[in-house]
Amino acid sequence: MSGRADVPEREASSLADGERHKASRVAPLTDVRRSARCIVWLLRLIVLLALAPRAASACAVCGAADKTLAARGEEVPFAGRVRATLDGRAAAFAARRAPLRVVELRLVPGAAIALDEDVLLSAELPLLRRSLVSEGAAPRLTADRLMLGDFEARASYVGYRTRAHRLSFHGSAKAPTAPIDRDPSGGFVPTDLQPGCGSIVPAVGATYTVTGPLLTLWTSASLLMPVSVRGGPHPGDSLRASATAQLQPHRLLAGRASVHGRLDSAGDVDDRVDPRSGGASVFLASELVASPVDDLVVSVGAAFPLVQETRGHRVTAPIALVGIGLDL
Fold this sequence. Notes:
The chain has one helix at residues 29-51, and strands at 82-95, 100-114, 119-124, 127-134, 141-148, 151-161, 165-175, 199-210, 215-224, 227-228, 233-234, 238-250, 253-264, 268-269, 272-273, 279-293, 296-310, 313-315, 319-327. The chain has 328 residues and is mainly β. It has one domain: monomeric porin ompg (Porin, Beta Barrel), CATH 2.40.160. The strands form 2 sheets. A 12-stranded antiparallel beta barrel has the order 1-2-3-6-7-8-9-12-13-16-17-19. A 3-stranded antiparallel β-sheet has the order 11-14-15, with no helix packed on it. A hairpin with a 3-residue loop joins β6 (151-161) and β7. The chain is globular. The two termini are 13 Å apart.
């Protein structure tokens, strides 16, 4: 068993790339059905991964005072740690001022390695399946595509720690590996619904964590500052924050509730300000986290929009969240 615990420090981006949209009416049944099919597909994939054979290894879930179950790679490092992760999200969006709907399934494989007990390096590359429907055309136009998202590399450093408190700092950068997407009629997909940023995106942030035998609390804030490197749509600067509480009555099971917020400045299209982009949003997420075997952690949950004061888009159905993390 490892002597260190697995305390999560999730950045509030996990709901990123689309949680910006105001829900002003009930989601269409087609969006709900598509999201449900995506959820079933994600759950099947997690079951297959969980049942895959692997070699025996030390336990990275249980520890001395920290007994939290983290499903991602941005947690407390310990010397020699290597981790593989897979996160998934199924979401449906609608443009406010255009008859366009987007249903997206996003899978994010990632890896993390600890250089020592204070430094953790990680990287991830999203894989996307996007279905676009242009409802203003007659007949209705549709497009179904597979593509990459933006590659992200990240480093975190634990600057302060005690038995129950920890303050860490992180820096990251995204590269524009996602294509510029177009709607079925050939026009640009709106700025905030693009699969990537079309920019190099440096980001900085910090996370503060308080741990206990039953309850763990952490809060995080990040600032993203895109620098456009090609033509087309680009998002503006983004300030993101989250607060999370995790209750763990048993070593193998935990419940997690979190609030995620973001404030986005207006983006641009070919260096011209896009007035139909940016805004503010707040989401409430609830997750069930379990560790059925040593070193394997699985989470399933959903995110619900509380505030969507965005200029161009909105979420039309709850966002399904799944995650799996495996220490190697």
